Amino acid sequence: MIEFVQAMRSHEMIEFKARLRGFDLLLVDDIQFIIGKSSTQEEFLHTIDALMGAGKRLVVAADRAPQALDGVEQRLLSRLSMGLVADIQPADIDLRRKILEHRLGRFASTQVPADVIEFLARTINRNVRELVGGLNKLIAYAQLTGQPVSLQLAEEQLTDILSANRRRITIDEIQRAVCQFYRVDRTEMASKRRARAVVRPRQVAMYLAKVLTPRSYPEIGRKFGGRDHSTVIHAVRLIEELRTRDAEMDGDVRTLLRQLED
């Protein structure tokens, strides 16, 4: 639109049209911004016809479907509606993981643990720009300070991004979900029993509390019968380690994460 106006003012419309129509593929983002500007719409309409007539490709993106674009001339609206109209939803958890893993190829010299990738993919879910920006910020800080990338470092350095994305999940919600999943009584979360059938669910709940809430280790410990922060740290590290070598444990945690984040 800006180039169109500049071309009109400088009497270079022939050159402007030739350049636009000479592309093999034209991608136009934020088409909603030309709404209401009749001269720009008219030129865009002719450009679409020229490209289609030459067998070339055109991709148009907007923040809503063509039929929801108020103020668009009917001829232009019909052109926008005649191709493949795709509703692009926010990236799901699997796609966010893949984006992060692909991005890591640019930082071959920096090791990023799998639990950090999982944490970022689950927590930064509003848009991909924030997701990639969070990873860039974390790696840049680690490289500048010489610190290894870790879950703790991610929580410390990405506080602003994480807090904006997190749904407020409480430790009580986590304990209820874990107890229901493993079929243990809720009172076992705070009990002193050391039976494996009780200890492992309790450790999973502590791990999820650390991953899904902003609570500190001491705060989490208090919600689990007044346990020391070192007990929570041990539980978090143990579950992290188990997830890397125990497919059943990893599956349990993934299922609980999905339940809690839905």
Write down the overall mean pLDDT: 88
Number of helices: 14
Low-pLDDT windows of residues: none
CATH superfamily (homologous) name of the largest domain: DnaA protein, C-terminal DNA-binding domain
Q: DSSP strand (E) fraction?
A: under 5%
Spatial strand order of the main sheet: 1-2
Distance between the termini: 41 Å
How do you describe this structure in short?
By secondary structure, this protein is mainly alpha-helical.
Task: Give an overview of the whole structure.
This protein has three domains: 2-81, Rossmann fold; 93-165, Helicase, Ruva Protein, domain 3; 171-261, DnaA protein, C-terminal DNA-binding domain (Chromosomal Replication Initiator Protein Dnaa, Chain: A, Orthogonal Bundle), CATH 1.10.1750.10. Helices cover 62% and strands 3% of the residues. The protein contains 14 helices and two strands; from the N terminus they run ααβαβααααααααααα. α12 (217-223) packs across α13. The radius of gyration is 26 Å and the shape is elongated. The model has no long low-confidence stretch (mean pLDDT 88).
Keywords:
mainly alpha; Rossmann fold; Helicase, Ruva Protein, domain 3; Chromosomal Replication Initiator Protein Dnaa, Chain: A; 2 strands; 62% helix
